[in-house]
Amino acid sequence: xxxxxxxxxxxxxxxxxxxxxxxxxxxxxxxxxxxxxxxxxxxxxxxxxxxxxxxxxxxxxxxxxxxxxxxxxxxxxxxxxxxxxxxxxxxxxxxxxxxxxxxxxxxxxxxxxxxxxxxxxxxxxxxxxxxxxxxxx
Length: 137
Fold this sequence. Notes:
Order of helices and strands: EEHHHH
Distance between the termini: 32 Å
């Protein structure tokens, strides 16, 4: 089935808005930016996450809202500052999210790689929706 390409949507500031089928990227991993749903891209049921875990995911992905080409997910210290909680609490929530979303420990890449994988998975599965700065909200 052939689909005509979507028109490029621009804001008054000239920044491109994401459209269906656009890809979001943290590091070298890419994924589609679908609307939130009860199932992931392959129809797999998404895990139940708490309100605070969702807030941690949103804060983790917030740097991508700037629209910079090489955004990095927020660090636990940055997330703790935004949510006004301790860094230990953020690390605890991140640990629960890694387990719930099936992101294993990776001794080679360490914690930073796990945060990249978590951010990419959250965006790809629609657990977090970006609101690009300067665009429509």
